[in-house]
Amino acid sequence: MKEERKLILKLGQMITDRVGVKVTVEDPEYWGLAEVLTDEMAEVCLSMKVRKPMTLEQIARKSGKDPERVQKLLDEMSVIGMIEYNWENADHHKQYVLPMFVPGCAEFMMMNDKQVEEHPILADFFENMSRLPLEKVTPMVPPGGSGIGMHVIPVEKAIPAKQESASVEHISHWLKKYQDKYAVGACSCRRQQRVRGEGCGEIEGDLCIGVGDMADYLVETGKGHYITQEEVLEILERAERNGFVHQITNIDGEDKIFAICNCAPGVCNALRTSPCKTACPAHLPVQGYIKMAAEGRYLDALKLIKTENPFPAVCGAICNPRCEDACTRATIDQAVAIDEIKRFIAEQELKENTRFVPLCENHEGKQFTHSIGRLSCLGQKLYNGTTKTVTWWSSNYTERNPFSKFPKLQTVWAHPEFHWDWTVPTRLYWICGHRAYAKLPDQWTGSCVIGTIKPSFFLLPIKTGELLGFPVYASHEKRSIAIGD
After folding, report:
1. Strand partners of residue 465
2. Secondary structure of 353-388 in the HEC alphabet?
3. Mean per-residue pLDDT over the chain, rounded
4. What is the mean predicted confidence (pLDDT) over 299-322?
5. CB contact at 8 A, 160 and 296
6. What are the CA-CA distances from residue 36 to residues 161, 196, 295 (Å)?
7. Please, what sign has the CA dihedral across residues 343, 345, 346, 352?
8. Cα-flanking dihedrals φ and ψ of residue 302, to 5°?
9. Strand pairing partners for 389?
10. What is the DSSP letter of 473?
């Protein structure tokens, strides 16, 4: 067992925002920091206060260390993600900040790709520090966030002109405030899930946008690269098409943010931990579509729901609203009518003019262009039983036997005139129109293909003198057995 590092333990206790917890070596506050920090780094951090800006000179004086040495340690910890910095003061001098865990250093550590690959335990550290502080506290976040965590905002272009909302709700408010200071980097949550073996294939890069001094911090510490305002809007609009939720990190109140995240509902720590989404069996992004519906963006809400549920109209009519049972609004008056809102949104799917068919593109905005199969037939081979002649009906004439891998059918293709007992291999069927057969009826004529049918369909045993087939496609009416002819 490794020796307990008292400075790391003390630092973890100082930073944690878990209520009533005494940090031990078994807690993520300890082992997460111990993975990447030296004791000397911990000494420097302990000379600071959480989220209180300090200059290099102040930190050196408080820690009792040489300023040149402190500068080197601060630079190293900035790359690690333990320390952040900005120039948000009257004379625009550089100041350093010891952040909280989330949003903060646990998140920044995940943005250092090489570091995470070398220390994969950081993914567990980030996940724990995103979840554990919320287990006993679930705040109700008003517009602007009131300095609490993250808050969902809309892309202004998608808001109808007649809609009115506070300036804090318009993304243009933040783009103008931090004009020409934007950077983009990898998503910490998506990377966390991949490293933990719980990834869902979500692309990590170029999704989390830093603004203002945070943009400079991301670029200078190797966690991102600068982008233009046009590129910001393109990323945001593409994120909406993919059903992602825009969230601002506004822990410093309504007048300041440092990031705009494009969160995947099934991956983001902020969204995954919400009680309503956790209670939903389909894990729908409840906060996102409720917000969009409140703004009158019903089609956008439908698009968001369909990223997780392809049949919203069905579920909207029959689901038992577990999300409402978990809704924290009920602690104030009564739960939000989530099911009724979802049902109303889902009804838009039943109207032809508001039906949504997703665009076939990946999360980087690139459309899928590669062929995944060849569905068209090469042609048909026709046998005339009267003239005993064979005709190939296709411009793609070939001598290749399509049944070469099926011993029972190889000679059927070469000499159809000799075969009337056409039985297909196990688990395959002759599909003739709306009926499927394991063996074609005697003297059968027509056109059919060999293929599979869904397991829910079945065939009855063959009886002497007759062959029974079952419909390939189900209907709302009770299916009946038909005699093959």
Report:
1. none
2. HHCCCCCCECCCCCECCCCCCCCCCCCEEEEECCCC
3. 76
4. 79
5. yes
6. 50, 18, 44
7. positive
8. -65, -40
9. 384
10. S
- 46 exposed, middle or buried (CB, 10 Å; 0-12, 13-18, 19+)? middle
C-alpha span between 113 and 297 (Å, rounded): 37
Query: How far is residue 55's CA from residue 96's CA, in Å, rounded to a whole number?
Result: 6
Q: At a CB cut-off of 8 Å and minimum separation 6, what does 81 contact?
A: 105, 106, 107, 108, 109, 110, 111, 112, 115, 221, 223
Pairing mode of beta strands 182-185, 259-263: unpaired
Residue 249: name the closest of 290, 292, 310, 188 by CA.
188
> DSSP code of 141?
P
Residue at token pair 């109140």: 253
* Nearest alpha-carbon partner for 34 in 67, 82, 76, 87: 82
Query: What is the signed CA dihedral for 235, 237, 240, 244, rounded to 10 degrees?
Result: 20
Each residue of 156-185: b (16+ CB within 10 Å) or e? bebbeeeeeeeebbbbeebbeebeebbbbb
The C-alpha atoms of residue 49 and residue 63 are separated, in whole angstroms, by: 12
**pLDDT digits over 60-94, tens only?**
999 999 999 999 999 999 999 999 999 999 999 99
* Phi, psi (deg, nearest 5) at residue 429: -140, 155
Cβ atoms of residues 210 and 218 within 8 Å: yes
| Residue bearing tokens 């233009």 | 228
SS (H, E, C) 65-87: CCHHHHHHHHHHHHHHCCCEEEC
